[in-house]
TrEMBL record:
<feature type="transmembrane region" description="Helical">
    <location>
        <begin position="108"/>
        <end position="131"/>
    </location>
</feature>
<feature type="region of interest" description="Disordered">
    <location>
        <begin position="1"/>
        <end position="35"/>
    </location>
</feature>
<feature type="transmembrane region" description="Helical">
    <location>
        <begin position="296"/>
        <end position="315"/>
    </location>
</feature>
<feature type="transmembrane region" description="Helical">
    <location>
        <begin position="249"/>
        <end position="269"/>
    </location>
</feature>
<keyword id="KW-0472">Membrane</keyword>
<keyword id="KW-0812">Transmembrane</keyword>
<dbReference type="InterPro" id="IPR051393">
    <property type="entry name" value="ABC_transporter_permease"/>
</dbReference>
<protein>
    <submittedName>
        <fullName>Sugar ABC transporter permease</fullName>
    </submittedName>
</protein>
<dbReference type="InterPro" id="IPR035906">
    <property type="entry name" value="MetI-like_sf"/>
</dbReference>
<dbReference type="InterPro" id="IPR000515">
    <property type="entry name" value="MetI-like"/>
</dbReference>
<dbReference type="GO" id="GO:0005886">
    <property type="term" value="C:plasma membrane"/>
</dbReference>
<feature type="domain" description="ABC transmembrane type-1">
    <location>
        <begin position="105"/>
        <end position="316"/>
    </location>
</feature>
<feature type="transmembrane region" description="Helical">
    <location>
        <begin position="188"/>
        <end position="216"/>
    </location>
</feature>
<feature type="transmembrane region" description="Helical">
    <location>
        <begin position="46"/>
        <end position="66"/>
    </location>
</feature>
<dbReference type="GO" id="GO:0055085">
    <property type="term" value="P:transmembrane transport"/>
</dbReference>
<feature type="transmembrane region" description="Helical">
    <location>
        <begin position="143"/>
        <end position="162"/>
    </location>
</feature>
<keyword id="KW-1133">Transmembrane helix</keyword>
Amino acid sequence: MPIGKSLPSVRPVSTGRAGGVQPTPPPEPRVRGAARRAAGGRRAELLAPFVLVAPAVLILVLLRLWPLLLGVNFSFTGDGERDGAAVGFDNYVDLFHDPLFRGALRNVGLLVLLLPVAVAIPGIIATFIYLRVPGHRFYRSVYFFPAVLSPVIVGAIFNLLLSFDGPVNSVLGAVGIGPVDWLGDPDVAMFAVVGVHIWATFGMALVVFLAGFATLDGTLLDAARVDGASLGQVIRHVIIPSLTRTIQFVFVTTMIGMLTSMFGLLYVMTTGGPEGSTYLPEYYIWIQQGQMNRPALASAASTVLFVIMLVVGLLQLKLLRRSGKVD
């Protein structure tokens, strides 16, 4: 080897006691701990959604699904002398032979037909509030006020207003229209109760619509105004397509409210009359359970009401999808 040229450095191989090559030492504890923490963090990230949803699912199962299943099972048992005995579909046969229950189902059909009106009213009012018509802040407070009133209070107020010799008929008489028996005429009473319910509850739908308007892109409205679009065209081509999810939510919640939250008004204003013309399934259920002591028949009526709500809700979503209002 030429002089002056250094030898390459060689790292000495450590040997054990027997003179063999010593194995590579394991990773340091700090590295292993970091790997375990990273794996644990990934597992926690995957499990976090399930942990957060678990309480709500547990509540739904224990307080909704389980009682529903018990009610369906109970609807196939008997009342009175056959208390607890399996009776098959006898309760359902009795239901559909009861003229009061058939009338309640006809009223459900009426509610479904009036549902678009119940949704359109708060939607139109929310549109005018969003467009900042003069006095919109005052109107927002006034329109929401009925939503905080108890149905019992609302029913008592409108009992006075709609009585045969009440203020409403006095106003009608002043303009040359004869008095209307709002709560005593079987052909009018249900419309009167539904109208009062819409007045008392549309404040919540109004708030939902206003929340939906908060997500609306204002540049779309500006572009429509620049193009000379009328108010109707703006509502049809800009506002409705932009609020599809909000409209879907309001449709479903309003339907549920009309089918399950009118008991207070019915009890105070008409008690199901006149001639059973204002019966709804929920009122029929209360009569059978609380006054007639027929809990199995009431369970059958509850099951029918659940099926009706499920079918009507699915049909609404299907119609909204076909009309292009829901993705």
